[in-house]
Write a structure and sequence with these properties.
Elements (H helix, E strand, L loop, with lengths): L1 H87 L29 E2 L2 E2 L15 E7 L2 E2 L3 E2 L5 E5 L7 E2 L10 E11 L5 E11 L6 E3 L2 E2 L5 E3 L5 E4 L4 E7 L5
Parallel strand pairs: 6-7
Antiparallel strand pairs: 1-2, 3-4, 3-5, 3-14, 6-8, 8-9, 9-12, 10-11, 10-13, 13-14
Length: about 260
């Protein structure tokens, strides 16, 4: 009987040890499972965090590329604008000379006269009329910004001048943000007028036409109607959009 009791106790001890071992193993298994879940969760979180960073890096690279391309385009536009500015400068002795004696010039020039009506790959909103002519009189814009006198713009070498913010196509850039890319056109037209002796004669007269700009064109502080020609007179003042610059129209024989 003593031997059976010892065996019984040994069996109980063995069972308890085995149950304890199994319990320990289950706890370890659960602990490993929790740790694996935490690792997977951290991995997902890290991936979720890294994806925006990767997208951000790609976006920054794209922005840098766009900025570099924009700088190249701006440099090209500046060079083109410099060439236009050189073309608008008066020739040597121009101030003292009178109007040039030349016949009727039927040829058109500049972006506005292109057959395809495009320039630098940009569609021009305007085409010159059949009566477009270069002037004999040397008209010019005297530009004022408040009390500041800006460079004079000479206007006799072309029959029309496109005005606006888009320096790729505009002959006379207007950089104010309220102005449209293609804002208005300064146009010379040949018209028939009565002379003092009652006979008919042809004259080349300056006009302004607004191309449907967002904020309008103003002639002597009066907003003009879009898509309509307005004849300009000596000493007329033009303003564009909300820009404070005033463009005073004079010619070489104008009184001071």
């Amino acid at each position: 009987m003593g031997t059976e009791t010892k065996k019984h106790k040994s069996r109980e001890v063995y069972d308890r040890e085995r149950e304890r071992s199994r319990s320990t193993e289950r706890r370890r298994s659960r602990s490993r499972s929790r740790e694996n879940r935490r690792k997977r969760s951290r991995s997902r979180d890290r991936g979720a965090r890294d994806k925006p960073r990767k997208d951000q890096r790609q976006q920054q690279k794209s922005q840098r590329d766009q900025q570099q391309q924009q700088e190249k385009d701006e440099q090209k536009i500046k060079e083109e604008h410099k060439e236009r500015a050189e073309a608008l400068k008066p020739e040597p002795g121009e101030e003292e000379e009178g109007p040039p004696k030349e016949g009727v010039n039927l040829g058109l020039s500049g972006a506005l006269a292109a057959d395809t009506n495009t320039f630098n790959g940009i569609v021009i909103k305007y085409s010159e009329p059949p009566e477009a002519r270069k002037p004999k009189r040397r008209w010019r814009f005297y530009v004022f910004k408040g009390e500041e006198v800006m460079p004079t713009l000479h206007l006799h070498r072309q029959s029309a001048f496109l005005m606006g913010r888009d320096r790729k196509v505009c002959d006379l850039p207007i950089d104010h943000p309220s102005c449209s890319k293609q804002h208005a056109v300064y146009q010379y037209r040949m018209i028939s007028k009565k002379r003092a002796d009652g006979t008919d004669g042809n004259r080349v007269v300056p006009y302004i036409i607004d191309l449907g700009s967002a904020n309008g064109t103003f002639l002597n502080n009066n907003k003009i109607e879009a898509q309509r020609y307005y004849e300009l007179q000596e000493k007329d003042v033009l303003k564009f959009g909300f820009s404070t610059r005033e463009y005073v129209l004079l010619h070489a024989e104008s009184d001071d």
